[in-house]
Design goal:
about 0% strand; mainly alpha; globular; Ferritin; DUF2383 domain-containing protein
């Protein structure tokens, strides 16, 4: 798989994981402001995920979905973390940790795939900036 395809695939998986996590949290949040913030983040993750999927499609590559085991373990981890604390502060902490992992991973991908097309790099940087912005917004809830 060439570097451009690898980067688009990573972006797709990362944004889809973020999207799925936010959808999950939206089902349990009870605070209106947090719901609004999560809804905005869901829109951003969905946009980036769809752009990566379309870019892969143009390259005649099917976007690889997140594996069922990964999805199940993520859902279990979220549910476990929410058993004792469903507060906006705790959700913000969880999302901050997830976004931090996303920042580390996309930064590594951008560094490790220097020959990817500029369009893929731009989308990767858009994801990076979005994750950084998400953390800044979530700080208000910590």
């Amino acid at each position: 798989m060439d570097e451009t395809t690898q980067l688009y695939q990573f972006i797709y998986e990362n944004a889809t994981m973020g999207k799925d996590t936010v959808k999950h949290l939206l089902t349990v949040t009870e605070e209106k402001e947090m719901e609004t913030l999560l809804t905005d983040q869901l829109s951003e993750y969905s946009d980036i995920s769809e752009k990566a999927r379309k870019a892969l499609e143009q390259r005649k590559v099917e976007a690889q979905k997140i594996g069922p085991l990964t999805k199940m373990s993520t859902d279990l981890m979220i549910n476990f973390n929410l058993i004792k604390d469903r507060s906006a502060s705790h959700m913000a902490e969880m999302m901050t940790q997830g976004s931090t992992m996303g920042i580390v991973e996309i930064t590594k991908q951008l560094k490790d795939l220097p020959n990817a097309d500029d369009s893929a790099k731009r989308l990767g940087n858009k994801l990076l900036k979005m994750e950084e912005h998400n953390i800044d917004q979530l700080k208000a809830y910590l």
